[in-house]
Design brief:
Number of strands: 6
Radius of gyration: 25 Å
Strand order of the largest sheet: 1-2-5
Number of domains: 2
Structural class: alpha+beta
Strand content: 15-25%
Largest sheet: 3 strands, antiparallel
Helix content: 25-40%
């Protein structure tokens, strides 16, 4: 049993090493790392593909490329006059975009998100923006239902907007914020 586990671990190590060599060769030659690994090992794409995709060298290169993108995004935001607000379609969405504070209209508190109209776990600050006026980032919105621009409902959370929250509070109706509902007490079952 141990011999089989050792043999399997050795095979995985060889494939990881081959994936790293294929990635380095692809960077130097501009080729496809999966095809290069397939030629070197004789394995098919179903085996080589996951090893190339999960290799730490490839993740490191991808992270360096995205960091450069973030630097360009930060430079674009720094040139904007006035406060910038980060918005998202739903309160829990990972996709977010930067808009000028002046571009957000009709501030209101709501527990229903824009787009798919999901109910949130509480009331969040919402507003309306034009889909083509974003400065940086990406929103969960596609223009497949008609030609742009579209006026879309967005959620503004305090997280991500800590630096400009005072400007947001000045623009938004903070006095209209609904009171949170009290939590209901759960009834336990009586035990006999």
């Amino acid at each position: 049993m141990r011999a089989r586990a050792k043999k399997k671990a050795d095979r995985k190590a060889r494939l990881r090493k081959a994936a790293g060599a294929a990635i380095e060769q692809a960077i130097a030659s501009g080729g496809d790392p999966v095809a290069l690994m397939m030629a070197a090992t004789g394995m098919d794409a179903t085996v080589c593909g996951p090893y190339v995709q999960k290799h730490s060298l490839l993740r490191h290169l991808f992270k360096a490329a995205t960091d450069g993108w973030r630097d360009r995004e930060a430079a674009a935001l720094a040139t904007e006059p006035g406060p910038v607000v980060w918005v998202r379609r739903q309160f829990s969405s990972r996709k977010h975009a930067a808009y000028r504070l002046a571009d957000v209209e009709e501030w209101h508190w709501s527990s229903i998100s824009g787009g798919v109209r999901r109910r949130a776990n509480g009331f969040y600050l919402h507003g309306y923006v034009w889909c083509d006026a974003l400065i940086a980032g990406k929103l969960g919105h596609s223009c497949i239902h008609g030609p742009p621009p579209h006026r879309i409902k967005v959620c503004v959370t305090k997280k991500g907007n800590e630096a400009g929250w005072t400007a947001i509070e000045a623009a938004a109706p903070m006095s209209d914020k609904p009171e949170p509902r009290p939590k209901r007490k759960r009834r336990g079952r009586k035990r006999a």
